[in-house]
Write a structure and sequence with these properties.
alpha+beta; 4 helices
């Protein structure tokens, strides 16, 4: 019974992941997706023998959009973990403090945009890419007047200037409300 339920949950999560990440046409809310994903995680935690290599719980993000050339990230871009209760927030804080010591948080509203990695060397833009599946993303920001090239390069020089210095920046890009299709094709 659990085996069939795990398979059913994996298929549901894969379907909705594809609708969200690859087709950019979700059918359910982020919250409903997170709950579905959590149900699969809970089932796999209770029955570890049901975990498969291709389970959505063993991957990050979705497929690379076909409009972008593939890029392998030097450092995998992991997915951020959602917390839905005070208990989960306290557990997150405990893990962070255990790993890095004293920490101060900045909390912002959740933006549902496009997660990107930007690379700069010697204060100059080298490469931009989408998160994709975490290990491989899609290259973007090639246009010489792309706003991230100039804005990011100015900040990179100010913060990390110096010969041979490089920095990787992770950002969430959100289109203005008046331009909901801005992440397609040449917009990046």
């Amino acid at each position: 019974m659990e085996k069939q339920e795990a398979q059913r949950r994996r298929e549901q999560v894969r379907y909705h992941s594809r609708r969200y990440y690859t087709e950019d046409d979700p059918e359910i809310s982020d919250f409903a997706y997170d709950q579905l994903y959590r149900q699969l995680e809970t089932l796999e935690a209770a029955f570890p023998e049901l975990i498969t290599e291709d389970s959505p719980t063993q991957k990050v993000g979705g497929a690379v959009y076909n409009t972008f050339a593939p890029v392998t990230h030097q450092v995998p871009l992991e997915s951020l973990h959602d917390s839905f209760s005070q208990e989960e927030l306290r557990e997150f804080d405990r893990r962070v403090r255990e790993a890095v010591g004293e920490v101060e948080y900045v909390v912002e509203p959740k933006f549902d945009g496009l997660s990107v990695a930007l690379e700069y060397r010697d204060g100059l833009f080298v490469r931009g890419s989408t998160r994709g599946g975490g290990v491989t993303g899609g290259r973007h920001g090639e246009h010489p007047h792309h706003p991230l090239r100039a804005q990011g390069a100015q900040r990179a020089r100010a913060l990390f200037g110096g010969a041979g210095r490089g920095v990787h920046v992770r950002r969430e890009l959100c289109p203005p409300v008046r331009a909901p299709g801005a992440f397609g094709g040449e917009a990046l």
